[in-house]
Amino acid sequence: MEKIKISAVTIIFNEEINIDACLSRLTWADEIVVIDSFSTDKSLELCRKYTNKIFQKHFNGYAGQRNYGIEKASGEWILFVDADEIITDELKNEILQKTEGATDVSAYYIPRDNISFGKLLRHGGNYPDYQLRLFKKTSATYREEIHEKLEIRGGTAYLQNPMVHRNYQTISEYLKKLNSYTDLEVKKMVKNNEKVTWLQIIFKPAIRFFWTYFIKLGFMDGYAGFLMSGLGSVYMFMKYIKYKRQ
């Protein structure tokens, strides 16, 4: 029986800090495909250590970049991995086992271990943090939202072994992404003509903090749990304030 081919795909922009650790754990895949948004650091130099399938495309939204990656991949199965994520040996073995031979499953959700501010988070809604990242090439298309969404044609299932996500390590890193993501959120809110009241601006961030820190037990993750709950509330507040100022 012919071997099933797996393509590992990642999209990058100035990821010299992360990309070597990411790609070094993907060498078992039949090919590694990199979609680069014209990085200006050493990202491409590092990528060339692992693959010659590097394609550059001006960023036009995360869905557009990911769909371009699917287009450039030749495998029957696609494994999408972000530059700050690592595939463990246990997960690799499970992926190889699940994609071997015929199956009615078109895509798999992968749990994710989030490491934020130096701590592995297990509470506050940060685990298992399932991500739909392994799928048959002919069965999936991304569509654009704030966080791109994968539309699957066929059945889905869940893997057991998590990938490692080296998430925010500093507050400034979080705030940088906060600014970018809230800008995208505001554009969507404007497009949908959403209504936002001052009561929502005042109370929703506070309710979010209470929910993640107390109800979802974020306090059990210590200082990192407090930061994630607090910064999540700041995210919501900034989104509403930016929208109100439109």
Question: How would you describe this protein?
Answer:
The structure is a single chain. By secondary structure, the chain is α/β, with parallel strands linked by helices. The protein folds into 2 domains: 6-166, Spore Coat Polysaccharide Biosynthesis Protein SpsA, Chain A (Alpha-Beta Complex); 171-244, no CATH class. Helix content is 38%, strand content 23%. The chain has 7 helices and 13 strands. The strands form 3 sheets. Strands 3-2-1-4-9-6-12 form a 7-stranded mixed beta sheet. The chain has a 4-stranded mixed beta sheet with strand order 5-13-7-8. A hairpin with a 2-residue loop joins strand 7 (112-116) and strand 8. The protein is globular and about 60 Å long. The model has no long low-confidence stretch (mean pLDDT 95).
* CATH C-level label of the largest domain: Alpha Beta
Silhouette:
globular
Total domains: 2
How many β-strand runs? 13
Indicate the percent of residues in helices.
25-40%
Sheet with the most strands?
Answer: 7 strands, mixed
Averaged pLDDT, please?
A: 95
Q: How many helix segments?
A: 7
Largest sheet: spatial strand order: 3-2-1-4-9-6-12
Taking all Cα atoms into account, the compactness measure Rg is: 19 Å
Poorly predicted parts: none
Structural class: alpha/beta
CATH architecture verdict of the largest domain? Alpha-Beta Complex
- State the end-to-end CA separation: 59 Å
* CATH topology grouping of the largest domain: Spore Coat Polysaccharide Biosynthesis Protein SpsA, Chain A
Fourth-level CATH superfamily of the largest domain: Spore Coat Polysaccharide Biosynthesis Protein SpsA, Chain A
Q: In what range is the share of β-strand residues?
A: 15-25%
Strand-and-helix sequence, N→C?
EHEHEHEEHEEEEEEEEHHH
